[in-house]
Structure formats: structure tokens, C-alpha cells
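Example record

The entry below shows one chain as it appears in the dataset: sequence first, then C-alpha cells.
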Amino acid sequence: MTARIAVLSDVHGNAVALEAVRKAIKKEKPDAILVAGDLALNGPDPAGTIDALRAMEADGALIVQGNTDVAVADSDFAASFPWYADGIPDALGYAVDWAHDALGDERLEWLRRLPSERRIRLEDTLVLVTHASPGSQTAGFDLDLDASVTLERLSRTDARIICCGHTHLPDIRDFGWKQVVNDGSAGYVFDGDPTASWALVTLDGETVTAEIRRTEFDVMAVANAISERGLPGDVYRAATVRTGKLVR
């Protein structure tokens, strides 16, 4: 008997991309859907995004909180962006405030209640979904990490499969005893392919296979909506969505 898991993350307020990914996932009929955080910040429709995610949760999806969700919900910038030792850039602060106001009290309370990690056991295999890495919403599995750091982060969980995002770069790595499935970003990807990326994991006994899927969405409509919002930095956010590359 086999089981399949759909993994997505880093929607970043891009409700158009999320809807496209939901349709693509529905066709695959997975046994579980895991959502690895960073849900509302940067895109033009944080409220619509959260409403869609809540509907997915009601249907059984497991959703965790990312670092930018902490920023949007509670403005704890040191926890959300520890790499900004001297304070976050003004443009980022404006975007956080805008998303916070756009969500309203009920959606913010839902965002606050999300856990930082969830676990599911399928086919006797323990699967962890976390935003960046086990035990951290901010320290991810970057491709240029020292091997010893990668090993230390892998060792923080007994899970055989670690599903995550944070880097916005799709990446599947099999270490033998563990496998990291980084789906990339379903709304704000950085690898130069302006589509939404997500992952499909198949468990067949002790065999685990994973693949990155790409789903097209109306890139120009989303980029234009960001530009029309007119916040500081929106020209770069729109260019990022339009090109699939981080522009800043």
C-alpha cells in the first residue's frame, strides 16, 4: 500500500497562486496535505490567502506557522528576522503593518494559534512539517550550509521525512536515513521560474520518492496588484513575482 503527501509553503499572500496549486493538488488526490508556513506577507491578498488556507485546514490539511507569520501576527521582529541585528528595513515594516491590518482580528488569531511544527505518520514513516528546519522557523536547509550544520539540523528530529520551505528554492535531498523535501514557494519563488512550486511525496513501504511540481498562475495579474498597492518596496516585490527571482 502506498501513501502520498502534497507539500506547499511560502504562499506569501498570493491567493491566485494558491488557488492554482489547490486545483493541481486536488487532481492528485493525496492522502495528506502539509503547508509549511509563511502565509500572508508580501502578496496582494493576505485575507483571501488565509481564508483559502483555513478552508484547506477544515478539510484536513496540516498547517504550520512561518517566521513572517510571527511578524505579521505579533510584530516580534527579532524572532522573525534575527539576521537584521539593527532592526528591519522600513519597506519590510510597512509590508508587515499592511498585511496585519488587512487580515483583521479573527484571521490574526488563527495565524497566532498555528503551531511551529506538525507530525504525521504514514506507512509507518514519521513525517515532520516545519517552516525552516526542525526546531527553527528561521534556520533553513540552505544549499551552501556547511555539512556539519546540515547534519546537526537533520538530527533534531526522529522524522524520516522533513518537509519545509523558507528558502524559496525547491530542493529535494536524500541523506539515506532522512530526506529533506523543500517544496520551494507556492507564490513567491526565487529560482527563476515564475510559477508556483510544490512537492509530491510518495511512500511505498520503506521507499520514499519525492518530486517538485510546478503550477502556472496569472503572474502578471499578481505582479500588477502588488504594484498598484504602492507600498515602499512593492516595485521589487512585483518584479520578484514576475521573474521568479528575488529582486531587491
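Notes for this example: The helical segments are 15-28, 46-58, 67-74, 77-80, 90-113, 147-154, 219-229, 234-243. Residues 175 and 186 are 25 Å apart (CA to CA).
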